[in-house]
Design brief:
The complex is a heterodimer of chains A (about 625) and B (about 220). In chain A, helix 12 packs antiparallel against helix 14. Chain A has 15 helices and 20 strands. By secondary structure, chain B is of the alpha/beta class. Chain B has two domains: about 120 residues, Rossmann fold, CATH 3.40.50.2300; about 90 residues, Arc Repressor Mutant, subunit A (Orthogonal Bundle), CATH 1.10.10.10. Chain B has nine helices and seven strands. Chain B has a five-stranded parallel beta sheet, sandwiched between helices. A two-stranded antiparallel sheet of chain B has the order 4-5. In chain B, helix 1 links the parallel strand 1 and strand 2. The radius of gyration of chain B is 18 Å and the shape is globular. The relative contact order of chain B is 0.10. Classes of the chains: A alpha+beta (about 625), B alpha/beta (about 220).
Chain lengths: ~625, ~220
């Protein structure tokens, strides 16, 4: 909250400063010259107009004091009224001026019977000149030394004919004095009453335009449209201050003008509701209906009840706006606490200004209060606009979540990329290793294999040839273990069967092979395949060379996730050592060692007359689904 | 009288092969070569009945010679004599049209027996080679462009023989299982090899054609 107050303060600081400067400029006028101070004429004789074109001296004038407010002194009359004022010209040498701060609606000025000022229409529709101060130079030629007469004919509307008190007939106390001093006063009043509100309205329109542009780019923020409408509506509403000439009669123009406040109220209520995130169709319909009802009711009420009807409606509209503000603040209190204090201040100011505006229309307010809404409301609007811009310049609430999920997704993506990279590196390493191995294999074949081969075929010794041959086969197996891929168990069984049965049948041993023949999913690593091949070869070689067996059976099965191989022959068995242990020769040790390397085991049972059984158990890899 | 080609780069081995061949075919006329280049020249000059071809030669692979023989002298039986027993090396040779293969380090008697058997029309077929052939023809089942080139596929019988060989049964066993003579089984194997060669050549020709199309 402090941050928001600071932000708010920042936004408010500059316009307030500017406004203060303007005020100082306006009010800090140079002191009037020591010569004659302007004197206010506060006593006048008033007489109703009889269309004579001059003050009807024949009728009995009555004394009135100025400033005169028709709403108080002649509430239901709207006929023009003559005022006669007298003053003494104190300094005929200097230029004197007549200053009328306010003459509503139109005034004709005569000096000593000579018409000095007449502009616009004096009958319905009267040229509305309510806000502009009037400064007239009093020509020395017309002035008499001594007492002078100023006649003013004021045309205006009765209060009941107009919606706003500001348009009802009224006359301020004229000031007579040196033209220069009055001129300064005139400028100041003009500034306050006309220029500043004009600027303020222009500012409002600009805010409305900006809000509209912003609304166009953010389709789901409908409250921005309403804000634009509200700002524009308020600008137009307060701009009616200076519409001089309206081609319509007063009643018609009042009707027209009466269409605006309900629209403004609609915009305000909708803005607040949408901004709070709550939409209600019935309320919308009611608001639109109201826009039609207000002018309709004025039409029904007739020209003489404009004031009461309009102001009752205004009161109702104000209540609606206050209700919408209260609702909005309640929602903000509950959901967006940060905004609460900022919005309370803003809305409070706005409500106060609307109240003031309404009061000045209803009952009329003294000058400073009257101008205050016109100055502060645009300020409130601009601040609100800035607040909206700032709020929507930063991300809308939805994208916070979007940003988070984006962050999550970015993290996921980078994790996936890292994983893929690691896999690629692994694959590459595998590839390189494989190529290395292939190169080693090729080298082995070319170099070592060739040499061994030469030994095989050129040696005179049978034993050496056999050894070299076995070495060559070993080399092949090793290469296979290095470079080979895993094999399907069923394929391995086929290979082993061909070799074992072929070798045994060649040497005249009866062989019986039983193994699963259906398609098994298990696989053997290249190393396991090679080692098992070696074990088998060793076993078969033993049978062929040493056992003297005539029959041999080989059984393979898969049990409990293990591969079990049993080779049994009916030979003479493995001879016992002296200490009762089996002869550790005949490759038993190497068989056991190989089995152990594969995390399995190799058991040998043997005895004379019993033959030999070699049982090999190897764990099979758990099955992962192969692509 | 048989004309025989010997292609082997190691001189001792070549000599040893020569003695072996002379033992099997006493009246054979043997031409020797140590390089692919020389062998090809001999092939263009002489008509051979039998060729014993090594795969790993200094100036290339003996498969080229096998191909050339198949192209120009289709009656010649080319036998690959190699140190490699894996299907990686043997399969291409078979695809090129080799009749069979012999592993170099085997004992003389075994080799002689194998040669004799081959002479009788019984080429060797190991389980791993059989698996390779099965896999190859499995990928050939889709008709490439039937109008352009002959589509080769195995008969059911041939497939059965292959499957059993892959399981590790010997040819006599298969004969017993299928109720056929060993000779018939051997014929099947020959057919299988021939079809492998034909299919491989067709595939190669198709590939060449496609490449030619690309190059155009």
């Amino acid at each position: 909250m402090p941050a928001d107050m600071a932000r708010f303060g920042f936004f408010v600081r500059w316009p307030v400063l500017a406004l203060a400067m303007l005020h100082w400029l306006a009010l800090g006028t140079p002191p009037a010259q020591a010569q004659a101070q302007p004197q206010a004429l506060i006593e006048a004789l008033a007489a109703d107009d009889t269309d004579l074109g001059h003050f009807p001296a024949e009728s009995t004038p009555r004394a009135v004091s100025l400033p005169d407010d028709w709403a108080r002194t002649r509430p239901n009359l709207s006929t023009p009224l003559w005022y006669r004022l007298r003053f003494d010209a104190t300094d005929p040498a200097g230029l004197l001026g007549l200053y009328l701060e306010r003459a509503c609606a139109n005034v004709e000025v005569q000096l000593n019977g000579q018409r000095l000022h007449a502009a616009g229409r004096m009958s319905d529709p009267i040229s509305l000149d309510c806000q502009h101060p009037l400064l007239l130079p009093l020509p020395a030629a017309l002035l008499r030394s001594g007492s002078n007469t100023i006649d003013l004919r004021l045309s205006g509307y009765a209060l009941r004919q107009v919606a706003s008190h500001q348009r009802a007939g009224a006359l301020a106390a004229p000031l007579i004095g040196p033209y220069a001093a009055l001129s300064a006063r005139d400028s100041r009043d003009e500034l306050l009453a006309v220029t500043l509100p004009t600027v303020a309205s222009a500012l409002l329109l600009l805010t409305a335009l900006l809000a509209l542009v912003m609304a166009r780019s953010r389709r789901h923020d409908s409250h921005l449209y309403y804000f634009a409408g509200l700002a524009a509506g308020w600008a137009v509403l307060t701009a009616q201050l200076w519409w001089h000439e309206l081609p319509l009669s007063n009643y018609d123009s009042e009707l027209l003008l009466a269409c605006l406040p309900p629209l403004v109220a609609l915009a305000a209520v909708q803005f607040l509701l949408h901004y709070a995130g709550w939409r209600s169709r019935p309320i919308e319909v009611a608001l639109y209906a109201q826009c039609v009802a207000v002018p309709a009711s004025l039409l029904l009420a007739g020209p003489l009840r404009v004031h009461t009807t309009a102001n009752s409606w205004y009161l109702l509209l104000l209540l609606q706006m206050l209700a919408a503000m209260a609702f909005y603040l309640w929602t903000t209190w509950r959901t967006r606490r940060r905004d609460f204090w900022v919005m309370t201040t803003l809305l409070g100011v706005a409500a106060a200004m609307v109240g003031l505006e309404l009061a000045s229309r209803q009952i009329g307010l003294p000058s400073p209060w009257q101008h205050l809404p016109g100055l502060l409301m645009p300020l409130a609007f601009v601040t609100m606009g800035l607040h909206l811009v700032q709020q929507h310049g930063s991300e809308p609430p939805g994208s916070e979540a979007g940003r988070l999920s984006l962050g999550d997704r970015a993290r996921e993506a980078s994790a996936a990329m890292e994983k893929t990279y690691a896999e690629m590196v692994e694959l590459r390493v595998e590839q390189v290793t494989h190529q290395e191995r292939k190169r080693i294999a090729a080298d082995l074949h070319d170099d070592l294999g060739a040499k061994l081969l030469t030994i095989v075929h050129t040696s005179d010794s049978e034993r050496i040839s056999t050894l070299a041959r076995e070495a060559l086969e070993e080399m092949r197996l090793s290469v296979r273990g290095l470079t080979g891929k895993s094999v399907k168990l069923i394929d391995a069984l086929g290979d082993w069967r061909a070799e074992v049965v072929g070798r045994l049948s060649q040497t005249g041993v009866e062989s019986e092979w039983s193994a699963p023949t259906e398609d098994l999913p298990q696989r053997l690593s290249a190393r396991a395949y090679v080692q098992t091949t070696r074990i088998l070869r060793e076993a078969v070689s033993n049978i062929i060379k040493h056992s003297g067996a005539s029959r041999c059976s080989i059984r393979c099965l898969i049990q409990n996730g293990d591969f079990q191989l049993a080779i049994q022959d009916n030979g003479s068995g493995i001879p016992l050592e002296l200490d009762g242990q089996l002869d550790r020769g005949h490759g038993m040790a190497s068989m056991k060692h190989r089995a152990k390397q594969l995390r399995g085991q190799c058991l040998v049972e043997s005895g004379p007359g019993y033959g030999t059984v070699i049982r090999l158990t190897l764990p099979l890899e758990p099955q992962t689904p192969q692509a | 009288m048989k004309t025989i080609l010997l292609l082997e780069d190691l001189p001792e081995i070549r000599a040893w092969l020569k003695t072996l061949v002379m033992q099997v075919f006493p009246d054979g006329q043997i031409s020797e070569a140590a390089r692919v280049h020389d062998a090809i020249e001999l092939v263009s000059a002489i008509k051979f009945d039998l060729a014993l071809v090594d795969l790993g030669l200094p100036d290339g692979s003996g498969v080229k010679v096998v191909e050339k023989l198949r192209e120009t002298q289709s009656d010649c039986q080319s036998v690959v004599v190699t140190i490699h027993d894996d299907d990686e090396h043997l399969f291409p040779a078979l695809q090129a049209g080799a009749f069979g293969y012999i592993l170099k380090e085997q004992a003389r008697e075994l080799i002689i027996e194998q040669l004799q058997r081959m002479a009788q029309g019984e080429p060797p077929l190991s389980p791993s080679i059989a698996r390779r052939v099965i896999a190859y023809f499995a990928t050939q089942t889709k008709p490439q462009q039937p109008d352009l080139l002959p589509h080769v596929s195995l008969t059911d019988r041939e497939s059965e023989v292959l499957l059993r060989v892959a399981k590790g049964y010997t040819l006599p066993e298969i004969g017993v299982q299928l109720g056929l003579s060993r000779h018939t089984i051997a014929d099947y194997v020959k057919q299988i090899y021939r079809k492998l060669n034909v299919s491989s050549r067709a595939e190669a020709a198709l590939e060449a054609q496609r490449l030619g199309l690309f190059r155009r």
